[in-house]
Amino acid sequence: MKFKLTTVNDAHQPVIAKILKDLQQKKEKAVEIGNETLANDCWREAEALKLNIQYIKFFEKIKARKYRDAWQILERCEIKASFIEKNSSTEFFIKSRGVFIREKVCKWQSLFPYCMFFSPCFTVEYYTCSICGHKIRPRSRCSHVKGRIYNGDLCVHMAHGMSIKEVSLVSKPVQKYSVIHNDETLDFSLVDYLADLLENPFEDWDIVWTRMSFPIEMFSQLNPSAECPCKSGKNFEACCIKKQEVSIPHVDFVLSKKIPEGKAEIYFPY
User: Fold this and answer.
1) For 136-173, how does the pLDDT look when each residue is reduced to its tens digit (9 = 90+)?
2) How far apart are alpha carbons 108 and 74 in whole angstroms?
3) How many whole angstroms separate alpha carbon 75 and alpha carbon 81?
4) For 264, which of 55, 88, 153, 162 is 20 to 30 Å away at the CA?
């Protein structure tokens, strides 16, 4: 069955829900007759379709400037893509857009201004395998590997008796959704710029991180006590204020189409 899956409207087609329902029923039947290969194939097809839908929803949110919602969907895409990749052939992962989405998720995340996150610390009494229910111990493990699929189900270790002990502030979190920033105080201009250039989530694009130098006169309105534009972490007065030029981080966007006139100009954020 062929169908278009590019826009939010495409993702809401009745045929999508039907395909997911059919795959679930097909997987259940495969499990009943002991056909693990078929059950795993159904899991892959369903998860790849869900990944595409999630990425389309991310694009809808970013177009609507709903940054926090978009960020959280990106993380879900990242997690789902990693499980699909671990349980698929390279050919399938490419064909199902998995490679495209995995790469673009990472690049989109790099454009967000989020840099501080909550990181909760828990104690756990014990874990059990989601496939067989075995209680996981250092010297007593079942044959199932966490992150692999068995009869169309993903193996995860389920935590029991969890208690939160502390919460830390980190810059490189395991859980990226726990952003502590107030979005109203942040600069999303890079995200907005790219979102305005793209017409659909599956247009190809790339980013190149570079630096550009600007005459010191262009920073005349910048408060000397403000953070230096060079991003050294020092304030402007203690860093570059006496230089003739200031080198600041710069991003070049590379698209598969010509950038519209007016959008190709250099954006100077000061």
Assistant:
1) 998 888 999 999 999 999 999 999 999 988 888 888 88
2) 8
3) 10
4) 55
Model confidence, pTM = 0.90
Q: How many CA atoms lie within 13 A of 47 on its CB side?
A: 27
The pair phi, psi for residue 168, each rounded to 5°, is -110, 160
Structure tokens, 25: 């029923």
- The number of beta carbons lying within 10 Å of the beta carbon of residue 183 is 15
Cβ-based neighbours of 18, under 8 Å, separated by 6 or more: none
Q: 238: which DSSP letter?
A: G
Give the E-state strand segments of 97-236 in sequence order: 117-123, 126-129, 135-136, 149-150, 153-154, 157-160, 163-170, 205-215
Positions in the chain whose pLDDT score sits under 70: 1-3, 264
- Indicate the burial class of 84 (C-beta count within 10 angstroms; 0-12, 13-18, 19 or more): buried
The two structure tokens encoding residue 158: 């389920």
Q: Write down the number of H helices and E strands in the chain.
A: 7, 9
> What are the structural domain ranges in the chain?
8-113, 118-170, 204-255
Token pair 């959704």: residue: 177
Does an H or E element contain 247, and which? strand 245-255
At residue 219, what is the residue type?
Answer: F
Q: For residue 41, give the nearest of 27, 20, 25 by alpha carbon.
A: 27
Cβ contact 215:244 at 8 Å: yes
- Where b means 16+ CB within 10 Å and e means fewer, 38-70 reads bbbbbbbbbbbbbbbbbbbbbbbbbbeeebeeb
Token pair for 225: 């006590």
